[in-house]
Amino acid sequence: MARGLQSEGRFPLNSGQCVASRRLELLPSKDDRSGCDFSYAGLNKGVTLRRQIMRMALTKFSMLLCVMLLHALLATPAGAQVHVNVNIGAPPPAPIIVQAPPPMLFLQDPGVYVAVGIPYDMFFIGGRYYYFDSGNWFWAPGYGGPWGYVGYSTLPWGLRKFEVRRLREFREREYTVYKVQGPKFKGKNFYAEGGPEWKEHERGEHDQGEHERGEHERGEHDRGEHGKGHKKH
């Protein structure tokens, strides 16, 4: 008799009460004399309840994470830059067109060199030129390019420490001293280099000039020879 009751999953109790796990909410069976039911219906209901609890916990965790991210954004210092760029690249920047290599003056606070006397935001640090144009940053081996897009997070610390507006203020202040002192300027400085594309451009202009000068000299020589021949006749 006891074996038959065990096979059905019911165990009669003298007290008439059911002893079951708190994790499961069990449904009593109609023909259960003890009031205890370990049927699949009770088990399924317990599993469903656990799933609902897990969903609620995940929802609360997601809301908490969103609140933490929002708080972090609002707590960003006013002097720091917030730069969000989901693009892999950016359109090519406007070309830097100058008549001569611009002077590069050293800015003490950001620890970078900046080009002065030109209408471009160009900086130099670590053997690279950095160019800010239309909200994006680019780098090149020289001011003549070629310019490649660079992500904000990979910029040198000196360019990320201050907003571009602040870097421009540093530039104007140092440029004023540079113009006032003239040849006696004591700050660190050098003249920017054009880079491989600029050197190729200069070589092309030089070759063209040599070709035109050769053509001119050849024409003068031909006219001189023609004049000599005319006098002989």
List the helices and strands and how they pair.
Blueprint: H1 2-8, H2 40-74, E1 103-107, E2 112-115, E3 121-125, E4 128-133, E5 136-140, E6 148-150, H3 157-161, H4 164-181, E7 189-191, H5 196-232
Antiparallel strand pairs: 1-2, 1-7, 2-3, 3-4, 4-5, 5-6
Summarize the structure in words.
Among the domains are: 2-74, no CATH class; 103-191, no CATH class. 44% of the residues lie in helices and 13% in strands. It is built from five helices and seven strands. The chain has helices spanning 2-8, 40-74, 157-161, 164-181, 196-232; strands at 103-107, 112-115, 121-125, 128-133, 136-140, 148-150, 189-191. The protein has a seven-stranded antiparallel β-sheet, covered by helices on one side.
What structural keywords apply?
233 residues; alpha+beta; 7-stranded antiparallel beta sheet; 44% helix; elongated
Strand-residue proportion: 5-15%
Helical residues, percent: 40-55%
User: What is the C-alpha radius of gyration, as a whole number of Å?
Assistant: 41 Å
Number of continuous helical runs: 5
The major β-sheet equals: 7 strands, antiparallel
Summarize the structure.
44% of the residues lie in helices and 13% in strands.
